[in-house]
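--- STAGE predict ---
source: upstream dedup step, 1 unique chain passed
mode: sequence only
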Amino acid sequence: MRFFKFTFIIVISFILASCAGTGTKTTPSISLSESGDTNLFFSREGGFIAGGVLAKVDVNGNEIARLGTKEYTKHSTSNNFRIRVSGAGLGGLGMGSDSISGIADGSNYFYIIGVKQGFFSTKFTIQETTESGFRQSQ
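--- STAGE serialize ---
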């Protein structure tokens, strides 16, 4: 009986930990970088479809965040960049991904991550937007 309880607690811990995103629920402060870096701002839309799947955000091949629904993150880079969004963890298996690229010119770039549902498939999408569109995304 003790073994069963111990195993149950371990399994539940893994399930709960896999649902936690690394983003924040508050909008990051928007300002230009003093060092001349390019700031990338990401927002994940809310919704029922794929709501339990974290969106893994990679910039130039490095994972910067795992966003849950209605979460934000900010990343700074000094190089030209390529962004890829895909599903994270076991829930993300079989989900399609999307990518976009940009030039590091010291500006702020804003992106909204969404989910597109097809008849037999679901995939993450990423769209560039304006600062006002980013603020209104939630």
